[in-house]
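Today's session is about reading a structure prediction critically. Students often jump straight to the picture, but the first step is always the sequence itself: look for stretches that repeat, for charged clusters, for runs of hydrophobic residues. Only then move on to the predicted structure, which in these notes is written as discrete structure tokens rather than atom positions. Here is the chain we will use throughout the hour.
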Amino acid sequence: MKFNFLAKRCLFCNQKRKLTKEHIYPVWLSEIIKVDDITFEPSTWNYLTKTTEQGTTLEAAALHSEERKIKYSDFVVKLVCEECNSGWMSQLESDVKSIFFSLHRKAINIENDYLAAYNLSLWAIIKLIMITQTFKEKYEFSRFLLDLLYNRIIPEGFIVEFANMNSHFINYTLGATLSPHAKRISHEDMEHVFDGFFIGALHLGTVGIRVSYLKTAHSVNRIQINERLLVLFPFQSKLPLVILPPGIGETDTDKAGEVRALCDSLTIGDTINP
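Below is the predicted structure for this chain, in token form.
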């Protein structure tokens, strides 16, 4: 899936203007987490599926490195215009900065703060969309969806979740969508998932945020496995929770694997099949 935005058109307002560089990880994050000299390797997930008469399951998922290293402080994209960068996006950064500092001081109960939950959700969605555009294989987001985000409206189909993280570093993961043991779904629904489903996670110090998007026309639902995460958007909603037997679907929770575990705890389930 590829979203080919026109050269020198702003990703969000779609105006043909001079584009400016935007930091994926804002400078203010270094006030919490020191990452200036740290590098990372962008990667995406490849999948191996198995189809039987009972349905299709994911057999394995492996990270595929894009074989390039980027310094966190140099992780910038040239996708947005000056008007957006210094306007509504700057205001959103300011709003989210105060939320992050409050979260780290444990001075906010985001579970009961609609505005904080909404702004953090919107910010995470925008960051992950910009991250996808740095990959050779780009995810497709419709012009209608981007127009809504430009107007600070989170489109239907997005779910944003929050988790407290144990390790104190910055990372992200894209594309870890399914647990092989949670539920079987039909081959047709599996194709819908890979065609219309997006998932990404941001690991920002003690803050973990997972964003998933599924086109609402698809007849599959999202469930959590083994761990109940706080749903930021839609506000105060809950995803169905499935507890797997010990040893099934477990993921690494060390520094390298924590953000992967955050992604892997969400799966796609068929609403009909048990």
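Discussion point for the tutorial: Residues 1-6 have pLDDT under 50 and may be disordered.
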